[in-house]
Amino acid sequence: RVYNRWAMLIFLHGSDTYRSRQRLKQLVAAFKQKYDASGLNVARLNGADFELEAFRRSAAAAGFLASRRFVAIEGLLGANPSKGVQEELVAFLDQHEKSENIIVFVEDDVGDTRPRKKGKGSRTSGQLLHWLLEHAKVETFETLTGEALNRWIRDEVKRQGATIEPPAVLELAGLVGSDLWQMSGEIAKL
Predict the structure, then answer these.
(1) pLDDT (tens digit, 9 = 90+) per residue, 81-138?
(2) pLDDT at 7 over 80
(3) Is the pLDDT of residue 51 over 50?
(4) Percent residues over pLDDT 70 in the chain
(5) Among 107, 125, 127, 177, which is most exposed with the fewest C-beta within 10 angstroms?
(6) Is the Cα dihedral 107, 138, 51, 127 positive or negative?
């Protein structure tokens, strides 16, 4: 794997959108704490309304009263950008490899990202997806089940300042399932 040459290029993806969006919140908060408490250098772009020129301006600009900018793009691959847009975006990312800015791509489930056997290419489709998997720090958020879900419930209850008994964890997991958006709300109600 060849990691990016940007200050930081991160690709968050997976079927568990709750945890991927929580991770994005953590990254934004850490950026604000370290570089820009005002948040003036944080840009969030929606993939459905993606404009390449707007991204270029945000990603290539120097920080305003800060050393860096933070740019998050959510749902770009889900919006199915044209091959031309993907090619231009990859060319831009390659061209600005020395940037101090932080770029985060956030996607829902993008399918099987495991590489095929040597010489068989990749299971992924799309130039941008392939490029991100090769150059970005990739964080995958798969749906939690079983003990991983139970652990998450215990941790979330603790994070929200309460305690929970093991039988209650099992019952909550059985009633709500793996939808962490709903689970978080139910825990807050309790």
Answers:
(1) 888 888 999 989 888 666 789 999 999 987 766 554 444 444 445 889 999 999 899 9
(2) no
(3) yes
(4) 87
(5) 125
(6) negative
Predicted confidence band at 15 (pLDDT cuts at 50, 70, 90)?
A: very high
Query: Which residues have a Cβ under 8 Å from the Cβ of 112 and sit 6 or more positions away?
Result: 123, 124
What Cα–Cα distance (Å) separates residue 50 from each residue in 76, 77, 135?
Answer: 7, 10, 21
Q: How many CB atoms lie within 10 A of CB 145?
A: 11
DSSP the chain: ----SSSEEEEEESS-HHHHHHHHHHHHHHHHHHT-TT-TTEEEEEGGG--HHHHHHHHHSPPSSSS--EEEEESTGGG---HHHHHHHHHHHHHTTT---EEEEEES-----PBPSTTS-BS--SHHHHHHHHHSEEEE-PPP-HHHHHHHHHHHHHHTT----HHHHHHHHHHHTT-HHHHHHHHHH-
